[in-house]
Citrate synthase
Amino acid sequence: MSEVQFKEGLEDVVAGTSEICFIDGKEGRLVYRGYDVRDLAEQTTFEEVVYLLWEGNLPTREQLNQFTTTLRSMRPLAKPVYDLLVSVPPSTNPMDALRTAVSLAGIYDPDAGDNSYEANRRKAMRLVAQIPTMVASFERRRQGRVPIAPDSHLSLAENFLYMLHGKRPEQFPAHVFNTALVLHADHELNASTFAARVTAATLSDLYSAVTSAIGALKGPLHGGANEEVMVMLQEIGEVDHVDTWIDNALAQHKKIMGFGHRVYKTEDPRATILRQFSRQLGEQTGTIKNYQMLEAIRQTIQSKKPLYPNVDFYSGSVYAALGIPTELYTPVFAVSRIAGWTAHILEQYRHNRIIRPRAEYTGPSHRNFIPLDDRE
Ligand code: ACO
């Protein structure tokens, strides 16, 4: 093993090839299938981006109509999945509820057991269509309310907000939420996507791979960071307290949630877009204090360290202004990232080789065996 170079956390290790997503960490660019995410964020629906990630090209109007019609028809949950979500304790962590619901949905998928490309493509569509229904249904359960059935007249973004709040969203909030979904749809070999690909590469089924991904996304160093950012804002309380709070946190070598990134060495382009929405929605909904505190945190940190905000820094304040409860931020991440996970799983199946790296052994060697009765 001496010729193998070990990199802690696999930093900068290239673990495979992919045609789906490119990140330029130096320039702060994110590209899906050749398209800059800033252009997609301004001009596409999330459904177009799902199609792009899976098919490699943006759909024509006709292709999109057909695609969205099928997706909309797949939104209702299988009865056992619905029953599970309304029967688990309301105190269940929403990511645990989602992970369990997705796992159960795999058993009831009409294509269960069929691992052909066409069947996997249909499973992927069902997951994109149903994860929003799962997340919204469980949130209604948490609130002691009856889940709202999906509305097939609405886009994926509009329908999610509708199922959550029970009323159709206004145009601007729906546009913001659609953009947030576009921005989170894929991000190369992030931890959850890598977990999905590792599982898929054993030729396990698509639902198992997605369940692995949901487990990885849950952690506070990955998808859980946006919730932690909001917890931090609550702890700080006032804009005037930011300097002292950040000084203390940095002195104790605490990680500031929503800052830093393994790949971006400049500002995450998704954060730049979400910052504008954080301000605009903050002004419109009376939640501007969140934005002001975030900006104060950013300025304080950047006056001390070359650290930049990542996507999670502003997304929580955007979701808060959209009326999405904090506990739902990571599940909402999954509502979007299921697009990227499934694109990567399908790509993995197309060119598969099991992913099986090595470890640099650092344990003891050449110990003499001691029979059980002689051990002290
Ligand atoms: N706050 C304070 N210091 C930080 C932060 C932070 N958020 N992030 C990195 N640093 C510092 C580290 O202390 C370290 O400094 P040192 O070299 O003086 O010891 C240096 O920057 C490198 O940090 P690492 O932790 O080694 O970077 P790594 O690439 O392993 O981790 C990660 C990346 C996990 C994103 C990290 O920056 C972090 O924990 N950030 C907070 C959690 C977060 O926001 N996660 C969301 C990421 S985006 C996503 O998953 C959607």
Summary: The mean pLDDT is 96. The beta strands are 21-24, 29-32, 35-36. Residues 9, 190, 221-223, 225, 255-262, 307, 310-312 surround acetyl coenzyme *A (CB under 6 Å).
